[in-house]
Amino acid sequence: MLSKVAQFDEMGGFEGSTRPPYEKLAKWLGSVEPEFLASRRAQAEFLFRRIGITFAVYGSQEATERLIPFDILPRIIARAEWAELEKGLIQRVKALNLFLADLYGAGEILKAGVVPSELVYRNPAFRPEMAGRRVPHDIFVHIAGIDIIRTDDDGFFVLEDNARTPSGVSYMLENREVMMRLLPDLFALHRVAPIENYPDQLLATLRSAAPRGAGADPVSVLLTPGQFNSAFYEHSFLADKLGIELVEGRDLFVKDDIVYMRTTEGPRRVDVIYRRIDDDFLDPLAFRPDSALGVAGLMGAYHAGNVTLANAVGTGVADDKAMYTYMPDVIRFYLGEEPLLQNVPTWRCREKDALAYVLDHLGELVVKEVNGSGGYGMLVGPHATRAQIAEFAGKLADNPANFIAQPTLALSTCPVSVASGVAPRHVDLRPFVLYGANGASVVPGGLTRVAMTENSLVVNSSQGGGTKDTWIIDDAPLARA
Amino acid sequence: MLSRTADNLFWLARYMERADFLARILQASRRLATLPRAYGGMETEWESALLSSGAAPAFHAAGLAVDEANVTRFLAFSPDNPSSIRNCIELARANARAVRTALTVEMWEAINGAFLELKAFEQARGRSAEDLTRFLDFVKQVSAAYDGGAHRTMLRNDAYWFSRVGLYIERADNTARLLDVKYHVLLPESEAVGGSLDYFQWTAILRAVSAHTAYHWVYRDSLKPWLVADLLILRPEMPRSLIACYESVVQNLDRLGKSHGKQGPAQRHARAVFGQLEQSTIESVFHNGLHEFIQGFIADNHRLGALVSEQYLF
After folding, report:
1. pLDDT at position A278
2. N or C, which terminus of chain B has less Cβ within 10 Å?
3. How far apart are the first and last CA of chain B?
4. Closest approach of chain A CAs to the CA of B97, in angstroms?
5. Do the Cβ atoms of B260 and A265 come within 8 Å?
6. By the CB < 8 Å criterion, does B5 face chain A?
7. Are A343 and A158 a contacting pair, CB within 8 Å?
8. A152 φ, ψ to 5°?
9. Torsion angle of alpha carbons B205, B210, B213, B218, nearest 10°?
10. Residue B109 confidence (pLDDT) above 90
11. Cα first-last separation, chain A
12. What are the beta bridge partners of residue A439?
């Protein structure tokens, strides 16, 4: 079924003629021996294991620490293509911030009927505790990861917004370091936009977001659930690069609505918390009482305006898959602009006509849970068995509002170095957008995720997906006029 | 710095040092156990190894027979022995992972590399004596690499000082326990009584702390048990002696105190213990009882660990 769809390859286009950004890579690939690539693959694996870049897979006992497969060939995007994408990303995150401030504030977009109220108020990620509250500088989403795909030469689609605690940026940074060590010759052929300033920009963003009452030198910390969390490597990596303390809930305490960390020199006041803990676990007094990860009284300090949480509490209401379908209207509503980045066409199963269509076409569609993430709880129609389709039809009929459906897109492919040689694999892209009181920025590139299994469309690392270094290069002219 | 981080660094250093000590104890014991009885080879050797390492209660609770295979397995590889080499490395890595931001790349790579090697070694079936030798050497190398990495690459701030205090408290404890188990062969009378029968016991003690050559350089004399005791207790130039460990403990605690702007009970206690060692001679130690002296030191050293914890909010 998939084979009927024309397949766009980022190197070969539709016809197999090399696209301009890939010319040097293609030539280089023609000049190296397969053994060379194999030795570099082995070296990459060794480096990643040695540095300890691992992540944990939930529910897999034998391997609590696993490597994310890394592909040694870069994914290349021309500067001009990137410039367009960057504008669209900033526009989108700007709108997300205005949207959240409105949802927890006046609710104008609901009054205007652009977004249905029940989608907000019945959303499990909506935080009533935040209603009527303002956050420092009115910024809710300081760090966003917007998942992007392409299907042809004509630009990009947004697949998903991640406005809670998006991860993956450490892989982006480490991939680059490893690439520069592994393939210096290939590197030297290109002018690749550097990404190593990301930690500095992130720190500047966090500091800019400090409460107005904080002094000239606000103290920031990174709050992690601890070393058993799947992204712990990233947490420690970032804290190290930012030069801020990596704290767990038990390292913090709240007194008189002020947050302190326990240090060898006594309590030290904390102004900004880059938290990598979900809302539910932040404060056992406000949310889950059984959470041992959070800090009792944190929400009190937050409401008192004495600490900034990045991202803010309650951002999940704006990034679920049902809300996603309204994003183009959200952008128009707040910015009065047309969206620069398109959504993937999506059926909202909560709407009767859409549901009927989806049920009739389950075999062709990708159906996702509105609140699902990490590639869990989804149906990929063309790859599903009859039994799986029947099971999903049942789930859909029971609770249609819990699902959206999208066409099975011919996700672009990219050349990947595998044991049998160089072969195309499906990819997506997660650029990281920073949004502070000091403005917005996007680190050039982002994390390219690869479905390492042939024909697979699932790129999530929890499902065996891998990553690639992503190059924004200067010197290649664009193919299209 | 975060109290939890300081705590982790303190224990991380202790685990790495302990792993090193266990490897040395095992090597010394294996050497001694191969001697004929007439040369001092005794069945009690493996019991001593258990006592020196502090693992005797856990070992006996497991109801195992005291022999080379069981003791080696228990001290080196047993997951059930909280301070087996294996568990030391695993705990060190868990601590290291939790405070990775406080470690330099070299230190992390030493520990992480050790952990990966350990996994590989554990998977290898049918270990030979040769494998064990390799493993014990490897553990010593890892400990040296970690220590060297810390010395060469860490910023000289409280992270470093906490880490060093942990290292020297552990090292002092190890030396003291080694002496405690063997004190009876170091008493001056034993030369008259046992004569050279104990010779190989003395060399085993020296080997366990890599001081066999050092002894000859310091004393330019044949082995005398009271000199062995002197070397390991009172000679400041011997890096594992109690006095050398305490000199370093005092130094590092002082730097910590200075950077925090105040001295506390930990600094005062460490200085008192150091002062006592400085004023002692080996004659006065023997006069008051070697066994009692060492017991007293172990208790004092333990108390310092507790004071450091209290003072710095662990």
Report:
1. 93
2. C
3. 11
4. 7
5. yes
6. yes
7. yes
8. -160, -170
9. -80
10. no
11. 33
12. A436
Tell whether B239 and B303 lie within a shared domain.
yes
pLDDT exceeds cutoff 90 at A155? no
Q: Report the residue count for chain A.
A: 481
Distance, CA of A193 to CA of A190 (rounded, Å): 9
If asked whether residues B291 and B176 sit together in one domain, one would say yes
CA distances from B121 to A184, B134, B139, B141, B225 (A): 35, 10, 12, 15, 38
Q: Are B221 and B227 in contact (CB under 8 A)?
A: yes
Domain count, chain A: 2
Q: Which of A264, A276, A293 to mutate to test the interface with B (most CBs of B within 10 A)?
A: A264
In this predicted model, what pLDDT tens digit does every residue of A72-116 receive, in sequence order? 999 999 999 999 999 999 999 999 999 999 999 999 999 999 999
Which residue in the set A51, A52, A262 is minimally distant from B313, CB to CB? A262
Does B153 contact A at CB distance below 8 Å? no
> Is B56 exposed, middle or buried, given 0-12, 13-18 or 19+ CB atoms closer than 10 A?
middle
Contact A47, A58 (CB under 8 A): no
Distance CA B200, CA A42 (A): 49
**Closest CB to B113 among A50, A261, A262:** A50
Residue range A118-129, pLDDT digits in tens: 999 988 899 999
Look at residue A376 and tell me if it is in a domain. Answer: no
The encoded tokens of residue A97 equal 């911030």
d(CA A285, CA A275): 17
The encoded tokens of residue B263 equal 């001295």
A46 exposure class (CB count in 10 Å sphere: 0-12, 13-18, 19+)? exposed
Q: Which residue has the tokens 């006095």?
A: B243
A49–B4 C-beta distance less than 8 A: no
User: In terms of pTM, does the model score above 0.80?
Assistant: yes
Tokens of B5: 């981080």
| Helical residues (DSSP H) of B54-104, grouped into ranges | 56-61, 68-72, 85-98
Cβ neighbours, 10 Å, residue B282:
18
Identify the CATH number of the domain in which residue A227 sits: 3.40.50.11290
Q: Could you tell me what percent of chain B has a pLDDT over 90?
A: 48
Same structural domain, B314 and B220:
yes
- Establish if A370 belongs to a structural domain: no
Q: Are A317 and A123 in contact (CB under 8 A)?
A: yes
Tell me, what's the pLDDT at B12? Answer: 93
Are residues A271 and A224 part of one domain? yes
Which residues in chain B have Cβ-Cβ distances shorter than 8 Å to A269? none
Cis before A311? omega within 30? yes
Percent of chain B predicted with pLDDT > 70:
92
Task: Let me know whether A44 and A13 are in one domain.
Answer: yes
Q: What token pair was written down for A107?
A: 């609710």
- In the chain, the amino acid numbered A350 is R
Q: Give chain A positions within 8 Å (CB) of B2.
A: 245, 247, 251, 261-264
Rg of the Cα trace of chain B? 19
Whether the CA torsion B248, B1, A201, A90 is positive or negative: it is positive
pLDDT of amino acid A1 = 35
What separation in angstroms does the CA of A412 have from each of A7, A470, B209?
7, 14, 63
Average pLDDT, chain A: 89
Which residues make Cβ contacts (< 8 Å) with residue A478, sequence separation at least 6?
Answer: A20, A78, A80, A81
**Rounded-to-integer distance, Cα A460 and Cα A462, Å:** 5
A248 touching chain B per CB within 8 A: yes
Token couple for A223: 């709050």
Question: What is the dihedral sign for C-alpha B170, B175, B178, B179?
Answer: negative
Residues B44 and B177 in one domain: no
Distance between CA atoms of residues A66 and A70, nearest Å = 12
Q: How many domains does chain B have?
A: 2
Element of type H or E holding A323: helix A321-324
Contact between B262 and B245 (Cβ < 8 Å): no
